[in-house]
Design goal:
By secondary structure, the protein is α+β, with helices and mostly antiparallel strands. It is built from two helices and four strands. The longest helix is centred in the C-terminal third of the chain and has 14 residues.
């Protein structure tokens, strides 16, 4: 029996925006663990500080063009089971995220 591919979605967002983003990615199917426990909305949050300098053509949600900005942000990690789920979760993340260029990463997981 072949198990569905599993992925880890990691993204960074301002603290205040995190509840809205999490609601969107969970609605897209992220954060569900397969198995008898039927766990949903699973993830891990870490607090940190993000930094960026918007370029001349930017329209930043926070900060000003040309000025270095530091923002308290959360790093959030969650499981996505299936390629369609991770694609849908990334699309939901991009739609719900306040930044014009959201920072995110997707890792394919292996079973051992």
């Amino acid at each position: 029996m072949s198990l569905p591919q599993r992925f880890k979605l990691v993204f960074f967002a301002p603290v205040a925006a995190m509840p809205t983003i999490k609601q969107a990615i969970f609605a897209a199917g992220a954060g569900r663990y397969p198995g008898p426990g039927a766990y949903t909305e699973c993830g891990f949050t870490t607090l940190g500080k993000g930094q960026f300098r918007p370029g001349d053509a930017a329209s930043p949600n926070i900060g000003k063009v040309g000025e270095l900005e530091e923002v308290d942000e959360h790093r959030f990690e969650t499981l996505c089971v299936g390629r369609d789920v991770v694609r849908d979760a990334v699309a939901a993340l991009k739609k719900a995220h306040p930044y014009e260029e959201p920072a995110y990463e997707v890792y394919k997981l292996e079973d051992y």
